[in-house]
Amino acid sequence: MDELTYNCLIVDDEPIAIRVIKNHLQEFKNLKLVGECNHAIEAIEVLSKHRVDLLFLDIQMPQITGVELLKNLNHPPKVIFTTAYRDYAIEAFELDVVDYLLKPISLLRFTKAINRFYQRMNETSPAEVPPTDSAHKPDHLFLKADKKLHKVLFEELIYLESFGDYVIAHTEKGKITTKERISHLEEQLPQDRFLRVHRGFIIATTKISAIQPGLVELGKFKIPVGRSYKSALEKLIPKP
Hints:
By secondary structure, the protein is α/β, with parallel strands linked by helices. The chain has two domains: 6-120, 3-Layer(aba) Sandwich (Rossmann fold); 140-234, CATH 2.40.50.1020. The chain has helices at 15-25, 40-49, 66-71, 89-94, 107-120, 182-188, 230-234; strands at 6-11, 31-37, 54-57, 78-83, 99-102, 140-145, 148-153, 157-163, 166-171, 174-179, 194-198, 201-204, 210-212, 215-218, 221-224. The strands form four sheets. The protein has a five-stranded parallel β-sheet with strand order 2-1-3-4-5. A five-stranded antiparallel β-sheet has the order 10-9-8-12-11. Strands 13-14-15 form a three-stranded antiparallel β-sheet, with no helix packed on it. β6 (140-145) and β7 (148-153) form a beta hairpin. Residues 128-136 have low confidence and may be disordered.
């Protein structure tokens, strides 16, 4: 029996955002991209000509927002909102969307959204998750800064430092400051390689050079260790 294929449409006015979603879609064999649109009017035309099962919909777009588009569709497909803004989350879920993804979108978080889509479509088989061998695991994340998305390899990331609504990524190539919550970035990092040691710090465990009371050293960097995170760090220390 042939595998069921679902048609997808991307609606976003940011070319970089479209590219990221298209790259993620390549990991799912039964998701077929039937079009990409830069605004709502173009999307309406595509929806009138093609069967679309899943719509990746940006919210902030010129003329007509993604929310307005969805509200005006008589028979909307399943929708995953893709946006850089948190403010519309409540309204989005009142519209019964499948998921609400905040940019930049990691492959791991994208996969969770696709799993939710399959559940909505009453599929019995799990999402076509990329193979778990190291060659296919996500090895990076994207950070938005200076009006572009910066690709940061996990192996080059030393630690993340939080400042309110901003995070500074300290990498082997330098610093990147992005408007993002550290808790959201934590979801995108592999747990076997990164550890939160403080409310405002996540470190790469492979970069640890020394551990002392209340501090962990990453080469020249000294990171404070919060009381509630101390036990998680101690698990990394071999027992005598």
